[in-house]
Amino acid sequence: MPEQELDVRALPEPRKHPAIFGAFAALAPGAAVVLVDDHDPQPLRGEFEADFPGGFSWEYLAEGPQEWRVRIGRLHSTPLPRILCDTGDLGGTGDLGDDPDAAGAVWALPVRDRDLDSNVIQLPAGRKIDAHAGPDLDVLIHVLRGTGTLRTEGGDVPLAPGVLLWLPKRSRREFLAGESGLRYLTVHQRRKALTIEGLTHSGR
Q: Is 104 helix (H, G, I), strand (E, B) or coil?
């Protein structure tokens, strides 16, 4: 079958990448689309590396100056399972650094096409997330570092590294960080983010 050609030169910038990813999603494994653009689409390749590592091919057919042509092939039927990070780094070392004054989401799941959300939330020492009713979804929390307290309708729950916490949908909760601050990983169904006390987080 002849290769599909996708010429995005006439498209407004905000529509280019969605059109390209849409064309890629429609490909069968082993098929390819030839992208035509008026500049080097190298930044787009970085997005493919983030979403489809090991799952696509990238071949320049023409390299400007007025026309760039790239053959983008699909290697597998779905994105491949992969390691995202080392949770030892998420505890406050490595790429996230170790700033005790950082607050809010200090890491987020770096995959755009997904059904789950995951964030690392940090509360500096003495800070809190005020009492509120949770969203209409269940949330799993893994405490990575520091200590704190979860206040519920039925009493206080102590938080320490290694604790795996289940927050049922709509349950009342309030988080208080201890003297060394509190950092935890959340996993939940994807939804729009909430903003509470200046901290953006979708599953506290």
A: strand
